[in-house]
Structures are given as C-alpha cells and as structure tokens.
Amino acid sequence: MTSIGGETMGTTWHVLYAGHRDLRAAIEARLDALVAALSHWAPDSALSAFNRAPAGSWIALPPDLARVVDAGLRLAQASDGAFDPAIGVLVDAWGFGPPGACPEPDAPAIAAALARSGYHRLRWDGERLFQPGGVHLDLSGIAKGYAVDAVADLLADHGIRHCLVDIGGELSGRGMRPDGDPWWVDLEMPPGIALPPLRVALHQLAVATSGNYRRGEHTLDPRKGRPPDNGVVAVSVLASTAMLADALASAATVAWPDLSLLLDRDIAARVVIRDGDRVEEVLTPALRAMLDDDDLAAHAN
Questions:
Q1: 79 annotated to bind ligand
Q2: Is 141 annotated as a binding residue?
Q3: Is 48 annotated as a binding residue?
Q4: What CATH code would you report for 177-298?
C-alpha cells in the first residue's frame, strides 16, 4: 500500500491507496488547481476574481468553482441559510478571513456586513454567477470536502479504485483495504471531551467534522451574523460524498437543535454538545442503524 501526503488549503493531506504507482505529482497538481479556483485566501484565484467583479456583471466560472457554487447554493436554500457560501464580507468583519484579526464587530458593523452578504443576493444560471456588487464568496465550509472527492476521482482516473483520502480531517473511502477490510476511521473527538470512541467503515462513504476546536472560534450563523450560541462542540456527518458531508456538518453546527435537514435526508451524523460541565452526544437514526449492539450500548443517551 502506498502512503503519501503534504500540505494544501492551509492544512494537510494524506492519501493511502492500493498499488505502487507514484501519483504525488498528479495529486499535487490537482490540489494546486483547486486552490487556484476555490481559495478566498489566494488573491489570484477565480473566486477572488468574482469577489472583485464590478456590480451588475455576470461571471463565467471555471468548472471546479461552478460545481461547488452550484452545490453550495442548493444547500443554502435547503438549509434556510444555515449554510451560506456568500458570507465572505461577514467572515472578514469578524477577523476570520484574509484581512486578519480585528476587534469584534459591533451591531452596526454586523448589519453592514450582512447587507453585503447572503446567497439570496446571487443569481446563478448554471455557468455564470451574477455579482450584484460587493458580495464575497467564502467556500471554507465545503471546499475541502470537494477537494477530497476530486483527489479520489483523480485516483480512479489512474486506475486506483481502493483508496482513503484525507484533507484536514475530511475523508473519503473508496473500495477496500488491501487486507480485505473496509477503511475504518474513528470520528474526530474534540480535545477534553470524554466520550467513547466511535469507529465507522468508510465503504464508498465520506465523513466530515465541523468544530471550532481545530482553528478556534470561526463558525458564524449566516442568518444572524454572529457565532452560534447553541453549545455545539462538533458535528460529524457521513454522506455519499465528502463535499456533501462537509457542507452538511457546517450547516448542522449552525442549525442545532434543528436537525431536520439531516433527518429529512436520512443522514448519519453525530452531534456533540456541551452545556457547562455536561457533555451530550446525539446520534441520528441513520447512524444508529450503522452501529452494532455494543456500540449502541456504549453511546446510549
């Protein structure tokens, strides 16, 4: 089995695959292309070019950016804005974006940022995105997941059908391990949380975890313009693609205690909530159905 890794998107990547072909250069080239399309940190990216576009212009998006924008806008509508790919101005106002740290914004500053934010201000025809003026895309809640899928697809194009791809904790498992086992992974556990480990098999599945413990407080509720105050420490979501898992984990982190988006789609997920010294673990029915009796007993609410 081949194991390679490196750095991308401000985090690390790691790939395991059955075979001995050296695909590092191809993977790194694909990741570099994704940064050039999707990064809001790279001033010369296609995303940054859209953010700078004049008001009233229709911008043709390159394929990778178009796919992520299309998925992001669909999920924004389905989640009633709990996930929103168009809050770059708000992210910057809180000091979480490329301009860097700044004092916490007051109510007028938040209102001004919200006035320039929101998926509802965009129009999308499947190829071109309308820039109404001053709206900034920020795909940090979905781009890593898309990159995981893109690398797994690249490996498939090179005849690699059995692989585990990890970018910053978002993972996708294709096929099986060389020993015949599935790709077993433990759901991320935030530091200081004393819960039993939960291991899942990524057999044609992906998993993503959203939580502030990785990079500090950075999650914002796009509807209110502020960090959510709901006690959520982490949300892990299993889905058919890493992009979907990534975006749903981001949405559920904001939407809790409303899990209708996950339940309506029969999504397997774990939510970890802290209330003072008390920690609660909520497993959706779809995740419970994946566990054996011993796991269910260990994770009984």
A1: no
A2: yes
A3: no
A4: 3.10.520.10
